[in-house]
Structures
1.
Amino acid sequence: NAGVTQTPKFQVLKTGQSMTLQCAQDMNHEYMSWYRQDPGMGLRLIHYSVGAGITDQGEVPNGYNVSRSTTEDFPLRLLSAAPSQTSVYFCASRRSGRNQPQHFGDGTRLSIL
Amino acid sequence: AQSVTQPDIHITVSEGASLELRCNYSYGATPYLFWYVQSPGQGLQLLLKYFSGDTLVQGIKGFEAEFKRSQSSFNLRKPSVHWSDAAEYFCAVGASKAAGNKLTFGGGTRVLVKP
């Protein structure tokens, strides 16, 4: 049972490059989210999805795009990377319903030069 | 808007000693509260959660947390710390009526365990 799988684990980009962070879950969870983690700021929600074909913005959506064509996958796209996007990115999923906890992937450490 | 404050950025504790991590939240309605632990290079693992009922919640790895509505707090405790408890701990609050994943996290508390 793989849970939430994120790829790649590490990536270095140059300013202006584009990239897609992959996230896949095999638990048939309806809800998926992307967070970024920065020192002293905890995790901040970037985008989330409550089901295939439905996405919405979180707290810090600027500079990121998402899509949800299948239940399993929720890729995060950086269209033009900026140094401010250097961070650790976590994907999470959970079942629908108020009481359901998030299951997190192991993260992608992204550096923008 | 909901918010979470973890006043302690770092805590150092001796192995075998007790541990308490503070968490204060701000939310207008009944909160859904969580504690997560993150080991170095890993994702977040759920320790425990509170939604309603008994205000003392038991979690995994010997952790417990107490919800105090009057103090807007949800402090995490462990009676006797093990070296493997060295990690970063995050408190989070969830909106009770959210259709999405609107968890708000505190800034985290890093726990160091001395032998």
Note: The CA atoms of residues 94 and 101 of chain A lie 6 Å apart.
2.
Amino acid sequence: EPEVTQTPSHQVTQMGQEVILRCVPISNHLYFYWYRQILGQKVEFLVSFYNNEISEKSEIFDDQFSVERPDGSNFTLKIRSTKLEDSAMYFCASRRPGGETQYFGPGTRLLVL
Amino acid sequence: GQSLEQPSEVTAVEGAIVQINCTYQTSGFYGLSWYQQHDGGAPTFLSYNALDGLEETGRFSSFLSRSDSYGYLLLQELQMKDSASYFCALNRGGKLIFGQGTELSVKP
């Protein structure tokens, strides 16, 4: 069964450094999402992406964040200058056209020191 | 804005039936989804209600009442592996707005 994959599974970085989190959505899906989950809290929407542009973004998704689909398979989230409060699990999700279900990847656990 | 309320934790015994409630406030939504999450792993889709009523998928069923701003997830024949967090989520034009989650503990 096809699944969303994410790399790396864990990332440790210093405050102020740039990180890029990578996702490979399910191949016939066209809608892509990033969510984050701070430890012990709920999953929060960050951004949705369709047709090579952002469809919607949350208040969390400020100028330090960007997303890109650099080729036909990858979907990336970049944090330009990480802050301590960016420490969280970041989930990528994808959805097929006409479908209601979002399929989540296993996540990248980001720790900012 | 939108908000969802779920009980923070529920305990049940193996083989029993448990219901996890979700009440919400929103100006509009397409449907209510339910996801399962084990120990911070990937949220896994369980069920979706676009319309009022009951949706059944194996041991799991979900219900939605738009007039009452209320939904629930029903888990039957509980198994130890069902111990996990369960989230209701509003589908708002593609993005999901999650509740705080309910931690279900299944005891032998």
Note: The radius of gyration of chain B is 13 Å.
3.
Amino acid sequence: KAGVTQTPRYLIKTRGQQVTLSCSPISGHRSVSWYQQTPGQGLQFLFEYFSETQRNKGNFPGRFSGRQFSNSRSEMNVSTLELGDSALYLCASSSNPGTGQGAFFGQGTRLTVV
Amino acid sequence: DAKTTQPPSMDCAEGRAANLPCNHSTISGNEYVYWYRQIHSQGPQYIIHGLKNNETNEMASLIITEDRKSSTLILPHATLRDTAVYYCIVRTSYDKVIFGPGTSLSVIP
């Protein structure tokens, strides 16, 4: 079974631009979560989608948004990029909520804002 | 905020068992204990989870105390490749996953 796939793996953007990151979950998984990881703040939860609906949201400004498609693939978008948005963005997928199964992570997208 | 407390770092000799503790004194009845690890620059890897009973899989064993207020992840024969940050997470199956700072395990040759 293929794992969680995130694209692109690396990205360099300029302040003020916007960026879209993509995540393809494990086949059959309907829940997708996004995380931001920085050296100073560690792993921080961004949001979670299940069946195209946002179920949980972390404490991030409205510049961070996401969506999930009917095939469970998910995208996250960051608008008006700031230097502090430089981070490793991780996506995780899991099966239906309530099963208790753990989440499986992709390798992440390394975003650098210059 | 994370609902768990873990030591910031631990060492373990290669070939020996690594026992990583986690305190979760406020755990509620429907919350699971999950363990993940993250090897440098890679995405976190799911290891194991449990609700009340001890669990074992090909990677590790999870021992949960009877009162469920603490647990221990056991890597039976630690190798250098087990050097990583280990995260203990408590959540219901519907909650968002909140990571704390974890325990940085160093396996020493």
Note: Residues 36 and 46 of chain B are 4 Å apart (CA to CA).
